Amino acid sequence: MTEDNAVPPGVEDPPQPRVRSLGRNTLVMASGTLVSRGLGFIRNAMLVAAIGVTGIAANSYDVANKIPNTLYAIVAAGVLNAVLVPQIVRAFRRPDGKRTVDRIVTLGVFGSLGITLLFTLAAPVFVNVYTQGWDAPQRDLAIAFAFWCIPQLFFYSTYTILGQVLNAREQFGPYMWAPVLNNVVSIVGLAAFLAMYGGYSPQIDDPGWWTVLPTWLIAGTATLGIAAQALILIWPLARGGYRWSPVWRGPKGELSGVTTVAGWALGAVLLDQVGVIVATRIASEAGAVGSDLGDAAIAGNAAYFNAMMLYLLPHSLIIVSLITALATTMSRHAAAKDTESLRLTVVRGMRIVTVFGLWSTAVLFALAPAIVRIALPTVPTDEAMSVAYVLMALSLGSVPLALLGVFKNVFFALEDAKAVFYIQIPVTIAWVGGMLALQQALDPYWWTAGVGLALSLSNIAGVAMRGIGVRNRVGTLELGAYAWLAGRSLLAAGLAGAVGWSLLRFIPETDLDDRMQALGVAIGALAVLIPLMGLLYWAVLRVLRVPEASELAAPLTRRLRRNVR
Fold this sequence. Notes:
By secondary structure, the protein is mainly α. The protein has helices spanning 22-51, 56-92, 97-121, 123-130, 136-149, 152-168, 172-197, 212-231, 234-239, 256-293, 301-335, 339-366, 368-375, 381-395, 398-413, 417-441, 447-474, 479-505, 515-543, 548-551, 554-564. The radius of gyration is 23 Å and the shape is globular.
């Protein structure tokens, strides 16, 4: 602890956590995310087994469940993440910082409760906004699901608030491990549904079939899982030395920075959600066309959700863990007005996320059919391929998405969310314009894949604009050295992807009606191809002298060496 961070004698304040390495913090978070995502795959496979992936029930539930997640992106992930870590880091540097943090938590939790109650009552409005081409019974089913799902918003917000207090204190593990409990609760609910009603059958796509009990088992237990995920964080907070006390008032102007940043962050997220609404409407219309034509292979909004879940797996496993650790470091440097250290952190983050982002692009694009087969084992082959095409389109945006996260946290650390808002305007225009253009140009079978492709292209535009803004605030981003790194990593990823793609073509086709055989072949293929692509990627990076390739693995390799000794 530096001298200017010291707490005066006699002033009670939670103990300051020691600063850990980026690699160790990332490893802790990634391990929790890995377990959570593994259980998430099981949960999602069970959900698809219960209600399908392209039918009326699946699309209805997807829209209902999308509502709290979208609202969470607006209220919690967008606004709260924009202000919490920078403000809490600054607060804990002051002698009376705990009181400020208590006030932020109090206003955030109770404000989220009021918003959640209001939005739950507005469930029919949200369903109408997010759908297009649906008949009344399907909309009614989505509304029934939504009444159970929207309360997730309060628990998502609470989870974010408590988790960001933990992150600001560099207690990263609990925030990433808490979703494990959420998945366990959801799996129990889905297991009960499958035990009572069996797997997916045509009757499930009849909105009249859904009574209170099956609706609750699907949607209600999902909300119960989010509640468990949020409330479990109270325990590590208390063990870490922070105990929340409700505080409603404080000195005038104490939270002025919070409200200013939150306002601009809210505007940026709302702009982004315009794109989400258009994307959902286009995908839902594609699903409606598929239902009208009797073609279940046309990907709709539920297929888009499943592809997005797979796309975000490597991103959340490594990239989000990296960005979360970097955000706290950036906030600390910004609070200390150490612009040079902030700049070096940004440059380091850009290089590391690019190396891992290109790797995930190679794997997701080359092996998409096998990945979808494993994730959705009960889905027919033609439906699985429609999801795979969406995944391939999304995978092209892995690196831009990662860089956007790094740059966004720079603006938030500097309390300059206004720039994020203005940059989001052309990005949203590019996404919406791209989606609508592709919808007009493509057959309905490709509409949802077009949504993913337009998102990837718009993210590239966003990176260019945010990068210029960051450079203007922190100085040179060493773009020449970055381009050299990106070029070498792209070559390695291209070679690995080409090998994976080519070898996947040699795997013999299975009986289209034997899904278990197809699942076994897919598991065997990935068990061989992913390690092979990984070894090739790392080998080429080593030959090309890319040091970032092994930086984050250092804590793991050191631990393995100790165990061997």
